[in-house]
Design a protein that fits this description.
The structure is a single chain. The protein is mostly helical. The protein has two domains: 232 residues, Alpha Horseshoe (Serine Threonine Protein Phosphatase 5, Tetratricopeptide repeat), CATH 1.25.40; 55 residues, Serine Threonine Protein Phosphatase 5, Tetratricopeptide repeat. The chain has 15 helices and two strands. A hairpin with a 2-residue loop joins strand 1 and strand 2. Helix 6 runs antiparallel to helix 7, helix 9 packs antiparallel against helix 10 and helix 14 runs antiparallel to helix 15. The longest helix has 17 residues.
């Protein structure tokens, strides 16, 4: 699993930096057209900007710790994580580099640096850092999950599946392992297995909207509209600012023939993310039905 990777697909995927662009089906009225199983990193595996963790106050506090302990690699690793949350990727890289310089066997710092590299579109370097982390600690589930998602986005599904399986075998409590494996099952049309994995991800990460969206798509693909609708609505309750959740909800309205509500939800998704093509397509599909109803 350490060979060279063709990252053309992965680079295209990571060009759109969205936290939840996982899987969204495109539905023509009354029929399932396709499942886009690897639309982007959800990334949840690239760094999400977090104003609290990346606040100047937090970074300043961690800087004080470094000034008091300039030879402590953990202090640099902690500040690097905060800098990454603030979107200051160059500064974060410098801190992770310093942490690794101080402790070349600091496997968590390699994995954290890989996250920054992924956010910068440097997948090759990220895989190398995940590999190093796993050479130091072969039981580090976080590195298997991160590397597996890069393989998934590069369409190397067997290697991705092997990494997610390994993390799960290690009894990971990180729901992303199940979520990402579910995406692969979903892409292969194995929706029963996908639903089971998304449910496991939900049990481990009950406040994350991503696995609810994923499970809802598989319910929708199997024509279980009630459960799909419930999952999409719950994803919206957890985070109402995610375009995918609203577009997913719209798909259920559309399948049920309620074009007015479908149009409304697609339109809201488009307001949240004007570049989200499934929402744009949905608005165009349902616009006529809204006009005729009015």
């Amino acid at each position: 699993m350490t060979g060279a990777i063709n990252f053309s697909a992965a680079k295209a995927a990571t060009a759109v930096q969205r936290p939840v662009r996982m899987v969204l089906a495109a539905f023509a009225v009354g029929s399932l057209v396709a499942l886009a199983g690897c639309a982007t990193t959800t990334s949840d595996d690239t760094i999400r900007i977090d104003r609290a963790q990346g606040s100047e106050e937090n970074i300043s506090s961690l800087t004080s710790v470094i000034n008091s302990n300039p030879s402590d690699p953990e202090a640099y690793n902690s500040r690097g994580s905060a800098l990454g949350k603030a979107g200051r990727f160059k500064d974060a890289m410098n801190d992770f580099n310093k942490a690794i310089q101080l402790n070349p066997r600091y496997y968590q710092a390699y994995a954290n640096r890989a996250l920054v590299e992924r956010s910068l579109g440097k997948q090759v370097e990220a895989v190398q850092d995940y590999n190093t982390a796993l050479q130091i600690n072969p039981r580090y589930d976080v590195a298997y999950i991160g590397r597996g998602d890069i393989y998934r986005l590069a369409n190397r599904l067997d290697e991705a599946m092997a990494d997610f399986n390994k993390a799960i075998e290690l009894d990971t409590t990180d729901g992303r392992a199940y979520h990402r494996r579910g995406l692969i099952f979903q892409r292969k049309g194995q929706h029963a297995k996908a639903i089971e994995d998304f449910s496991s991800a939900i049990s481990l990460s009950p406040t994350a909207p991503e696995p609810y969206n994923g499970r809802g798509i598989s319910y929708l693909a199997t024509n279980d509209l009630d459960n799909a609708f419930s999952d999409f609505n719950h994803a919206i309750d957890l985070d109402g600012k995610i375009a995918e959740s609203w577009a997913n909800q719209a798909l259920v309205y559309e399948k049920r023939g309620n074009m007015q509500m479908a149009y409304k939800s697609f339109s809201h998704a488009l307001q949240l993310d004007p570049r989200y093509q499934p929402a744009r397509d949905g608005v165009e599909r349902t616009r006529a039905g809204t006009a005729s109803a009015g």
